[in-house]
Structures are given as C-alpha cells and as structure tokens.
Amino acid sequence: MYSLSNLQFLGDIHQPLHDEGLLRGGNSISVNFTNKVVNLHHVWDTSIPEHLIGGYSLASASAWANNISLAITEGVYQPLAHEWLEGIALGDPITTALGWATEANAFVCTTVLPGGVEGVEGKELSGEYYDEGIKVVQLQIARAGYR
Known about the structure:
Blueprint: H1 4-12, E1 30-33, E2 36-39, H2 40-53, H3 58-73, H4 78-81, H5 93-112, H6 128-146
Antiparallel strand pairs: 1-2
C-alpha cells in the first residue's frame, strides 16, 4: 500500500525543478506569469497547470485527471505508456527513482531554462514559454500517474 508521502514523492520526482539544485530548484529565480511576480518553481508547480485547467478546484483537477487518463488509454500517450514502465525495478527503488529524476531533469536545459537563468529571470512566461512548458507538464503528469 502506498502512503501519501510515497505518492507525493512519485509525483514530485517527475517535476523537472524538483530534480534540480540550481538556485534552490528555481525558487530563487523571480519571473512573471500572467503579470504576477512569482518564482520559477511556482510557475512549474502551480501556475502552468492552473492556467491550463482554468483555476484551482477539485472539479477542475478531476476533469484534468480524467482527460490525462483518456490520453493514456486511448489518445496521444497510448503508444508511449508501455515505455514508461521500462526500467522499473521494485527491488531497487533507488535506481528507479534516479532514472525518473534524470529523465525529468533533462527538461531543465531543453524547456525550463533553455536560455539559462538569464532567459527567464524577470521575464513574462505566460506566452511562448507556457506553450512549450505545458507540453512537458502534461507529459510528466501522465507519466507519474501511469507509473
């Protein structure tokens, strides 16, 4: 049986900035999202997902979870889902966790900070940056949920 802390760890390890030590995982990088000053970590944990689903409510989260489940079973993620279980070794959770962390961390250079800290610090991230970021957020949430 999974505990709540185990499930939180499973979800958190899929968020790229939870696997990154640079400036405390983005907590020390000030940015703007929809004209509000927040830190980069908040953008990835909260702002991007809430912007996609239209807010913060149980109903919105539930609808999003249903949409992601359908994308895994019948949609865009169906051909990929079987690969998400490769390398899982229940007898070796450290190797499994490190693999997932490495996979998520790869997005730091390609999507989270493609131009380095200078590319995002003090900038508005709700436009083109969001458009690229939401793809990663959805993918990583689908992976975490499936796993």
